[in-house]
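thought: fold this chain, then report.
action: predict
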Amino acid sequence: MKNIFASFLIVAVSIGCTVAVPQPFFVNTPSSVTECVPTTIEWAGGDTDFTLAVIANGDEFAAFSNINSDSFTWATNVPSGTVVGFTVTDDAGDQVETALVTVQPGSNACI
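observation:
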């Protein structure tokens, strides 16, 4: 009986001490960015809603707010040769950034 009580107590204490560890906030750098081909930017962690800023050649080119998911598909409506990066800001104001990537040649029909 004593062993059963001790086991129950250990389980109860373990359950009571469970702490949810938040997932780190990060964004993946797209493996390929091609002119006029949609590019999906994916991230994880952070607090919903998100804002995605597209940085082109060092300046903010576009911003998309009130994103309720962990990804966004951008039209890639900048010319090839443009150096782009992406900044995701969560509802708490925390920011994460991708590495810079150079837009590869494609159709220029969207520009």
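thought: worth noting. The longest strand covers residues 59-67.
final: tokens above.
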